[in-house]
Each structure stands twice: as structure tokens, then as C-alpha cells.
Amino acid sequence: MGTKGYLPDNRLPHVPQPIKEQASAAKWLDRLDQHTLCRIVEKTRDIAVVKLLLNTGLRVSELCALT
Q: For residue 26, is pLDDT > 60?
């Protein structure tokens, strides 16, 4: 036996190891994309929503849940 209950080597070398999925990192807009988005939006309300999302980091679902 190896250290603390572990085997000293791999007893199942023919069994493929599972592939770990990497968690995808949050994707952020750079400043140029943020500015472009704000220029495209026309309605005052929509501009406020976009700026709120960009400046606070709220998720869309969190914004929709606001009352």
C-alpha cells in the first residue's frame, strides 16, 4: 500500500480517465464594444438598462426580477 490508503501505482491503466470540463469564464465586453452597444440602443429606457447591466454586473435574470 502507498501512503495513507492509496495504491502506489495505477492498477487500471487501460481505463480512460474522464475529461474534466473546464468552467467557462464570464465573457466581458471591452470598452469599445460597450460604447458601440450604447450607441446602437435608441430608447432612453433601453440605454438605462444597458448601462445598468454594464456598470453593476447584474445578470439579465436579476434585472428582470427587480420590482
A: yes
What pTM did the predictor assign? 0.55
Q: Which amino acid is at 16?
A: P
DSSP string, the chain: --GGG--SS-S-TTSPPPPPPPPPPPP---HHHHHHHHHH--SHHHHHHHHHHHHH---HHHHHT--
For 2-21, letters b (16+ CB in 10 Å) and e give: eeeeeeeeeeeeeeeeeeee
- Hey, what's the cell of 8? 502506489
